[in-house]
Automatic annotation (TrEMBL):
Boundaries of every Alpha/beta-hydrolase N-terminal domain copy: 39-245
TM spans (from-to): 23-41, 53-76, 88-111, 123-145, 171-190
Alpha/beta-hydrolase catalytic domain mapped to chain residues: 262-548
Species, as recorded: Streptomyces kaniharaensis
This protein's record includes keyword Transmembrane helix: yes
Keyword Coiled coil assigned: no
Protein name: Alpha/beta-hydrolase family protein
One family name in Pfam for this protein: Abhydrolase_9_N
InterPro entries: Alpha/beta-hydrolase_catalytic, Alpha/beta-hydrolase_N_dom
Record's keyword terms, sorted: Membrane, Transmembrane, Transmembrane helix
Length: 558
C-alpha cells in the first residue's frame, strides 16, 4: 500500500499558502484614487524611491478607506458582502492601467517644474522606473500589518466573547489591540530606535571634523586658559570653536581694524546637566571677555549641538569682530530625531542658557554692557523661544533676535502667525503692524510692512515658502492650511493642492530631505543671513556693495 497516497490536505494547504491575499474591490478603488493623488506636487522635488514610498503609503491608506466606506455602506443597507462580478474587476483593471500611466506622467512633469524652480539637477531615472516596485512592497507590508492587527483583534474578541457579551468583547478587543500597537510603536520600536541612534551618534560625537584643530587663542572654549576641556566639546562644539572668520578676514571686509571674535561652548561631556552646562559656558564666556564686547549672541543649537556657521560668521562680520557668541549642546541626535524625543531638552537648553547669560548681563552697568541678541535655526529656534513669554519679553530683554526655519509647533511663532493681520498671508504674516516681530521669505527684499516704522528691538523670522520644517503639522491630515489655500510662495508650484491624508505624508516625506536643495529653498538658509542680520543688527557703515560681497563670502562657506 502506498503510504504517500492521495491525501489532498497537503496540496490544499500548499495552494492556500501560495495564494496571494484577497483584495476587495472597494479597497482597490480607494487605493487607486489615493495612488493617483500621491503624484501631486508638494514642497520639494521627489526622487523615485521617495515617490514609491509615498505611493505605497497612500495606496494602503486608500485601501483601508475603501474597505471602511464599503463596510459603512453595507451597514446602512443591512446586507452582507457580495462577490463582485468579473466585469467589475475588468473595469477596475483597465481604469487602473490608464489612470496610473497618466498620473505617473503628470507626476514626472510636476517634479520637472519643481526642480527647475529650485535649480536641482539630480535626476535618477533608474529609481523613477523602480518606484512602482517600491510602492508595491510598501503597500504589501502595510497591508500585512493591518491584516495581522485585524486577525489579532478577532482572536481577542473571540476569546473575550466566551466570557462577556459580544458587543463588549468587540469594543474591548479594539481597545486592547490598539493599546498594544501603540505601546509597541512608541515603546519597543521608538525607544529601541532612539537607543541605537544615541549609541551611534554618541560615537560620532567623539570625532573632530576634518580640518578643525584645537584653537590656540584664549578667546575660544577649548583653547589656552579655557574652563572647558577641548575633548568635552563634542564634534559640533569643536567645529564651532575651531572655525570662523579671523581678525584679518573681518578687517578685509570692513576696511578698518577688527577684533578677533569670542566663541564659548559647552558640550554634553563638559557637565552633567543643562543648567550646569549653561553656567560653565557663561563662566568661560566671561573669562574670555565676552561681556566686554559690543555685541553678545546667545545661540540655541540644533539637536546634535550644531551652530549654523553661516549665521554666526555673518554676525561676526557685520559686528566688525567686536562680538561674542555662546552656545551649549543638549543632545547627540540630529534635529529630525530630536523633533520626536528631545523637545524638552531643547526647551531647557534655550531657557537655561539665556537665563544664565541674562543673569550676568543684567547686573552690568547699562552704559557699558553689550547689546544682547538671540538666534537659532530649526529646533534651535524652538528652544530659543522658550526663554521668552511673548513679544514684549523679546523686546524688553534683547536688542534683537533672528530665528530661521522655525518648526510649525514653535509656541511664539504660532502665536504671532495665528494672530496676524487680516489679509496678510501665512507665508509672510504681519503681526501688530510689524512693530517688533516681522517675517520674511526673502530678507533682501525686506520684511513687510514696508510702510510701517520698525524701531527699537527687531525680531525677525526667516522662513522659506518651500521649507517643510516650517509647514509640517499633524493638522495636515484633516485640515487645509492657509499656506496652501492662499497664493503659494515664489518657490512653491502654483498647482499645489491639499488632499486629506496624502498631503500630510507628502510633506512628512519632504522633512528628511529639506536641506538637500540649493540655498534659498527648503530648509537651506545661508546667504539670507546677511540681509537678515543686517536688518536686526542695524550696523552703521554697511553699504549695499558690502552686503553683496558678504553674501558671496557666506555662500562660499566663509
Amino acid at each position: 500500500m502506498n503510504t504517500h497516497a492521495e491525501d489532498p490536505e497537503p496540496a490544499k494547504k500548499f495552494a492556500r499558502f501560495r495564494k496571494p491575499p484577497n483584495l476587495t474591490l472597494p479597497g482597490c478603488w480607494g487605493a487607486l484614487v489615493l495612488s493617483c493623488l500621491s503624484f501631486t506636487p508638494s514642497l520639494l522635488p521627489r526622487g523615485g524611491f521617495l515617490q514609491g514610498l509615498i505611493w505605497g503609503i497612500a495606496a494602503a491608506i486608500g485601501y483601508g478607506l475603501g474597505v471602511l466606506a464599503a463596510s459603512v455602506w453595507r451597514a446602512f443597507a443591512d446586507r452582507e458582502p457580495r462577490h463582485p462580478k468579473r466585469m467589475a474587476w475588468r473595469t477596475f483593471l483597465i481604469s487602473a492601467a490608464v489612470l496610473l500611466v497618466v498620473f505617473f506622467g503628470l507626476g514626472q512633469y510636476w517634479q520637472y517644474l519643481i526642480r527647475g524652480m529650485m535649480g536641482v539637477q539630480d535626476y535618477n531615472i533608474a529609481l523613477v522606473v523602480l518606484s512602482p516596485v517600491v510602492a508595491v512592497v510598501v503597500f504589501g507590508l502595510l497591508l500585512l500589518i493591518g491584516r495581522g492587527l485585524r486577525a489579532l483583534y478577532r482572536r481577542t474578541a473571540d476569546v473575550l466573547g466566551r466570557r462577556i457579551g459580544q458587543r463588549a468583547a468587540r469594543a474591548t478587543g479594539w481597545i486592547l489591540v490598539s493599546g498594544l500597537a501603540y505601546l509597541v510603536i512608541t515603546g519597543l520600536l521608538l525607544d529601541g530606535f532612539v537607543g541605537i541612534a544615541n549609541q551611534v551618534f554618541s560615537l560620532r560625537d567623539g570625532a573632530t571634523p576634518e580640518g578643525v584643530h584645537q584653537p590656540a587663542s584664549t578667546l575660544r572654549s577649548g583653547g589656552p586658559g579655557s574652563l572647558v576641556a577641548w575633548d568635552s566639546l563634542g564634534r559640533q562644539g569643536r567645529g564651532f570653536v575651531g572655525t570662523g572668520p579671523s581678525e584679518g578676514d573681518i578687517a578685509r571686509f570692513t576696511h578698518r581694524p577688527a577684533m578677533e571674535p569670542i566663541r564659548s561652548y559647552a558640550g554634553l561631556w563638559s557637565s552633567g546637566d543643562t543648567a550646569s552646562r549653561a553656567e560653565l559656558a557663561v563662566k568661560d564666556l566671561d573669562r574670555a571677555g565676552g561681556f566686554q564686547r559690543a555685541n553678545l549672541l546667545v545661540v540655541t543649537t540644533t539637536g546634535s549641538g550644531w551652530v549654523d556657521p553661516a549665521s554666526v560668521d555673518t554676525f561676526e562680520y557685520l559686528g566688525g569682530g567686536d562680538t561674542a557668541t555662546v552656545a551649549i549642546q543638549y543632545s547627540y541626535l540630529p534635529s529630525w530625531i530630536s523633533y520626536l524625543v528631545d523637545q524638552s531638552k531643547a526647551r531647557a537648553a534655550g531657557r537655561d542658557l539665556f537665563d544664565a547669560v541674562y543673569d550676568v548681563w543684567s547686573k552690568l552697568p547699562q552704559a557699558t554692557r553689550p547689546r544682547l541678541f538671540v538666534a537659532g535655526e530649526s529646533l534651535g529656534s524652538f528652544g530659543g523661544e522658550t526663554a521668552f513669554s511673548g513679544e514684549y519679553d523679546l523686546r524688553n530683554r534683547t536688542s534683537g533676535t533672528l530665528f530661521a526655519g522655525p518648526p510649525n509647533f514653535n509656541t511664539l511663532f504660532r502665536e504671532f502667525s495665528d494672530n496676524r493681520a487680516a489679509g496678510s498671508p501665512e507665508i509672510q504674516p504681519v503681526y501688530k503692524d510689524g512693530r517688533t516681530v516681522r517675517f520674511t521669505n526673502d530678507p533682501a527684499a525686506g520684511a513687510p510692512p514696508a510702510d510701517q516704522p520698525w524701531t527699537g528691538t527687531r525680531v525677525l523670522y526667516l522662513m522659506h515658502s518651500s521649507d517643510p520644517i516650517v509647514w509640517w503639522s499633524p493638522h495636515l491630515i484633516f485640515n487645509e492650511p492657509d499656506w496652501i489655500a492662499e497664493t503659494p510662495g515664489k518657490d512653491v508650484l502654483k498647482g499645489i493642492v491639499w488632499i486629506p491624508f496624502v498631503t500630510f505624508w507628502q510633506v512628512t516625506a519632504d522633512l528628511p530631505f529639506s536641506t538637500g536643495v540649493p540655498s534659498g529653498h527648503g530648509h537651506k538658509y545661508k546667504a539670507e543671513y546677511v540681509d537678515g542680520w543686517n536688518a536686526v543688527l542695524q550696523s552703521p557703515g554697511i553699504s549695499a556693495q558690502d552686503l553683496d560681497v558678504l553674501r558671496n563670502v557666506i555662500a562660499e562657506g566663509g
